[in-house]
Design brief:
By secondary structure, this protein is an alpha+beta fold. It has two domains: 156 residues, no CATH class; 122 residues, Immunoglobulins (Immunoglobulin-like). The protein is 51% helix and 21% strand. A four-stranded antiparallel β-sheet has the order 6-3-8-9, with no helix packed on it. A three-stranded antiparallel β-sheet has the order 1-2-7, with no helix packed on it. Strands 4-5 form a two-stranded antiparallel sheet.
Length: 326
């Protein structure tokens, strides 16, 4: 108290100070909470961002794979079109051997494989998402198709070579027949010259020569394509000047193309060996022999046209004339 008797003025009350360690702990706690919140936020953002990036990456990979599969499909389609174009190039060769069993079998296999490829192509075309397995399946089918085409081409070439060899052989045979015909004509000319010095009375004669196509029942066939046999009939008239005894009559039948029909051996004619179609042995006693027939069994395709009949005996040409068969 003041000595004057007045009460002493009161001093303002100072706030109570907190202890220093408690305040630091509280600040640190807030810092930790803030850092945890930031880390949690960053973690959440990173997870969302990573998921988004992964999804975008997967979509990009998927799009790239689909684009690659589309390119592969287009390449296979072009390959398939090329194979079909190459197959079509052999149309002419196929016509030449249309009845060949090997060609028919190969064509059926190729067509079956081709239809399978087209079916797979259509399935892939209708699918929005393609798989590598389906593209691989299509590739395998086209590979099979390519192998079939390669085999097909090899067989076609082989068959064409065989056909060419046959055509060459037929041409050679025709050439030989033409040469033979020329030699026969030349021999005939020499025979005519020799016949002036020979006794023609001794020559065996034939008359009434006919050429008739027969069916399988032995009846006359109007169309030569259907004939199973060709029959040559003739009569040997009486000739007292002809030596009697066994006579072999040789028949030569020549088709409209000049090819000799049949192969019954050969006979000697003016110093040459001449092939014949058929032959018949008769016993000649100087008297007329009617209804002599020589048959030739058809073993090749016949066409309408002139067929030449030639008869030979005793080194003579007895008869030569063409007969028109329908």
């Amino acid at each position: 108290m003041d000595t004057s008797g007045n009460p002493a003025p009161q001093q303002p009350q100072q706030p109570q100070q907190q202890p220093q360690p408690a305040r630091q702990n509280k600040t640190m706690l807030w810092i930790i909470i803030a850092l945890a919140a930031i880390i949690l936020g960053l973690g959440t953002w990173f997870i969302i961002y990573s998921s988004s990036q992964k999804k975008a990456y997967e979509e990009a990979v998927s799009l790239r794979e689909q684009a690659e599969l589309d390119l592969q499909q287009q390449a296979l389609a072009s390959d398939y079109e090329a194979l079909n174009a190459e197959f079509a190039q052999f149309e002419d060769q196929r016509r030449l051997i249309l009845d060949d069993s090997v060609k028919l079998e190969l064509t059926q296999k190729y067509e079956t494989a081709r239809l399978q490829v087209e079916k797979l192509q259509q399935e892939l075309k209708n699918q929005k998402h393609k798989s590598a397995a389906e593209i691989r399946r299509l590739k395998d089918e086209i590979s099979t198709l390519r192998n079939l085409l390669r085999h097909y081409v090899e067989e076609i070439n082989r068959l064409n070579q065989e056909n060419e060899a046959l055509r060459s052989e037929n041409s050679e045979i025709k050439s030989r027949n033409e040469e033979l015909s020329s030699r026969v004509a030349s021999t005939s000319k020499r025979n005519e010259e020799l016949s002036q010095r020979m006794t023609l009375a001794e020559r065996l004669n034939v008359t009434g020569v006919t050429l008739t196509p027969l069916n399988k029942k032995g009846k006359t066939e109007k169309k030569v394509q259907k004939a199973k046999q060709l029959r040559v009939s003739f009569t040997i008239p009486q000739n007292n000047s002809t030596p009697v005894g066994e006579k072999t009559i040789y028949l030569r039948l020549t088709s409209p193309s000049g090819q000799l029909l049949g192969n019954a051996g050969s006979f000697s004619f003016e110093g040459a060996q001449v092939p014949c179609s058929a032959k018949k042995v008769i016993e000649y006693a100087g008297e007329e022999i009617g209804g002599v027939t020589i048959y030739w069994d058809v073993n090749t395709a016949l066409t309408p046209g002139p067929y030449t009949v030639e008869l030979f005996a005793d080194n003579f040409r007895l008869f030569s004339r063409p007969f028109e068969l329908k």
